Amino acid sequence: MSFKTNIVSGLLFLIAILGGCASSTPPVQDLRTAKMALLNAQEAEDRTEAKSYYESAQKYLEKAQKKMQEKSYDEARFFAQKATADARVAKIKASNAILQQKVDALDLELKKLKHEFVTIDDKKGE
């Protein structure tokens, strides 16, 4: 091998090593974000509409923590991000279900008031 080939090979090897290190940093912030998203979505645990997403987020967080212990940081980051996404979907679905219940209750109350108004109006006309 020539001197230039050795230098180029050495530089490529060094770049590969440094590149691998740079992309394999522990995803501590990703795990924190996933944990916080799960805490924020706890109301979803009891909501039928959101339960599957909440449970999925829990499983992804467990996988992320396991991969973190194994020092498989890229996989840990991937699972932490999946956990965050599913927890956020669970939170949104749970919030939407709660809001829909409130809308339905208000709609029922409005119908009752309309009925009372019609009844009062009919009595005035008699």
Describe the structure concisely.
The protein has 126 residues and is an all-alpha fold. It is built from four helices and no strands.
Tell me what the structure shows:
This protein has 126 residues and is an all-alpha fold. It has a single domain, classed as Substrate Binding Domain Of Dnak, Chain:A, Domain 2 (Up-down Bundle), CATH 1.20.1270. It contains four helices and no strands. Helix 2 (28-40) packs antiparallel against helix 3 and helix 3 runs antiparallel to helix 4. The chain is rod-shaped and about 110 Å long.
Key features?
126 residues, mainly alpha, 84% helix, Substrate Binding Domain Of Dnak, Chain:A, Domain 2
Structural class call reads: mainly alpha
The span between the termini is: 111 Å
Known CATH architecture: Up-down Bundle
- Gyration radius over CA: 28 Å
Number of strands: 0
Low-confidence stretches: none
Outline, from the CA principal axes? rod-shaped
* Helix share bin: over 70%
Topology:
Blueprint (H helix, E strand, L loop, with lengths): L2 H21 L4 H13 L10 H19 L3 H53 L1
